[in-house]
UniProtKB/TrEMBL annotation:
Its EC number is 2.4.1.-. GO terms for biological process: cell wall organization. It is found in: Golgi apparatus membrane. InterPro entries: GAUT, Glyco_trans_8, Nucleotide-diphossugar_trans. It comes from the Eukaryota. GO terms for molecular function: polygalacturonate 4-alpha-galacturonosyltransferase activity. The keyword Nucleus does not apply. Pfam families: GAUT_1, Glyco_transf_8. The lineage of its organism: Eukaryota, Viridiplantae, Streptophyta, Embryophyta, Tracheophyta. Keywords: Cell wall biogenesis/degradation, Glycoprotein, Glycosyltransferase, Golgi apparatus, Membrane, Signal-anchor, Transferase, Transmembrane, Transmembrane helix. This is Hexosyltransferase.
Amino acid sequence: MRRRPFLDQRRPSFKRRWQQRPWWVRLALSLLFALACVLLLTVILGSPDPGASPSTSTASSGTEATSSPLLRQRSYLEGITDALNMTDEMLSARSFSRQLMDQIYLAKSYVVVAKEANNLQFAAELSAQVRQAQSILVHAAAHGGTVLEQEAEKAIRDMSVLLFQAQQLRYDSGITIMKLKGQIQSLEEKSKAEAEKSTKYGQIAAEELPKGLYCLGVRLTMEWFKNSELQRKFSDRSPVVQNNLRDNSLYHFCVFSDNILAVSVVVNSTATNSKHPEKIVFHLVTDELNYAPMRAWFAMSDYRGVTVEIQKVEDFTWLNASYVPVLKQLQNTATQKFYFSGSGNRGTPIKFRNPKYLSMLNHLRFYIPEIYPELQKVVFLDDDIVVQKDLSELFTINLNGNVMGAVETCMETFHRFHKYLNHSHPLIRAHFDPDACGWAFGMNVLDLVEWRNKNVTGIYHYWQERNADHTLWKLGSLPPGLLAFYGLVEALDPKWHVLGLGYTTVDPATIKEGAVLHYNGNMKPWLKIGMEKYKSFWDNYVDYSHPLIQQCFMR
């Protein structure tokens, strides 16, 4: 990845951080702020100069009316108060409305504390007095007048008695603040526990194989073994088809997956939106279990003349533990414990114990030049994407000597290197910039000639071997990808690869302009937990008229 000018990494604004806080945290902080303001106003307004008499104050105010610089700015102050819709009644230090409002704010805080202390009777008395004070203010506002002394005197006196009683019950500001802090902490702990449960259940749902997909695989397997015509379509390939598989003038795409329906959507959407589908070649790799049903599906379907090659990972005998560090590590007892049971008392987070991390299909992306030795350029696609535009232009993009073309994801700080890698480790700290821009797998243009020249697979092996103890990064294929392709990535226009449809909200305009939509995240479109507002983009390329689809998904 070429070094780029350091991008602005300003911290999120106060408004954004405030909106990201849970509602109960914002409520508690607002109550604390209101309480502090009331106490401050009480101190300021309730402490007159003991040496000044009322007559003296009145006289001095009259003499200073023409000399005070603050009063000379009356027109400016009037402009502010008008803009803020503040009345003279509320601005007056002797206003009954102001006294009532201050008492109401303080009383509401004491109501919360009284309920926490299980003093429900006192809380009810305070609430009733608050309603009485509010009714006086509402009456005055409705009639466009001020609160009169005879109306407010009794309400202010009764409220003062209750507030004094609250202080006698030790509901003072310090205790109130401490209790509110404790309440906030308790709510935060409950929120954290609920978030962990949500993550756990979401992960479990994402890992489950839907009944419809299981049914489709079984029925396709039966169809494959009882229908010799389907088998001949793949065994008796014409010389033209065989030549297409290695013709570098065509558009070569590779997908590694065990999800038949998802792969069919990738192929169908690519072919449907292509200007020249007859020039498209798809290289698919699956596992032993899905090899027969995958071949049956694509033997039964014709995607506008697209050439499809299907292989199984078990046939790549050179992918063994002596060559592939990941396979060697998976044979290690400590690694198996890390994946399945976690290490230490706290264990490994459930999101890192996803079976996909154990699948060789997830790591095949680092061996593409060896799987396809005669190809020069390919586009790698994940199986959870939908193509909306013609992708032929990707094969003409100049990568400027780099190995990969990818869309960068550092618009937010959490997609930089320091979020994926352990930068406290000396190896990582010495070789990589923590603020380097991350990028995404899912739609990647690969120059296999440059890959071989720069030995990217060897670099990948080097870092995998250094991470045998999981101290450089936890799990997944992206962190080692960031290391292996460091300085070898050409940034593509973001419209080529739109991410986030599987876990967040994406701008509709961005989706409309996107060439490839990526459902990265747990909420895949073929799962019940998928985001409904984005499922239609995926459903458009599922052939629900197919008999097997109807048998497995329409019941």
